[in-house]
Amino acid sequence: MQIQRTQDELVVRFSNAININIDYLQKFLDYIRFMEISSKSQATEEQILELANDINKSWWQTNKSKYIQ
């Protein structure tokens, strides 16, 4: 694994040989993106949590058929 910081971005590289669960990786990246966006926001913590709940509800409506038969 390599981590490189440039002026504009942080670059993380993984060997293609490593077996990474893409779903977990995507959730981690979503969390990092959330932290990036919320750090620039002037919204209150309550507003951010409300937005997160709305997103979760939307995700569940889209994906619940995959989990409930």
Strand order of the largest sheet: 1-2
How large is the share of residues in beta strands? 5-15%
Number of E strands: 2
Please tell me the overall pLDDT.
88
Helices and strands, in order, run as EEHH
How is the main sheet built? 2 strands, antiparallel
* SS element count, helices: 2
Report the helical percentage. Answer: 55-70%
- Gap between N and C termini, in Å? 39 Å
Query: How many domains, as an integer?
Result: 1
Radius of gyration: 16 Å
**Strand-pairing-aware structural class:** mainly alpha
- Which regions contain 5 or more consecutive residues with pLDDT less than 50? none
Query: What characteristic shape results from the CA principal axes?
Result: flat
A few lines on this structure:
The protein has 69 residues and is mainly alpha-helical. The protein has helices at residues 22-40, 45-67; strands at 2-5, 10-13. A hairpin with a 4-residue loop joins strand 1 (2-5) and strand 2.
Topology:
Layout: E1 2-5, E2 10-13, H1 22-40, H2 45-67
Antiparallel strand pairs: 1-2
Report what the structure shows.
The chain has one domain. It is mostly helical. The longest helix is centred in the last third of the chain and has 23 residues. The mean pLDDT is 88. 61% of the residues lie in helices and 12% in strands.
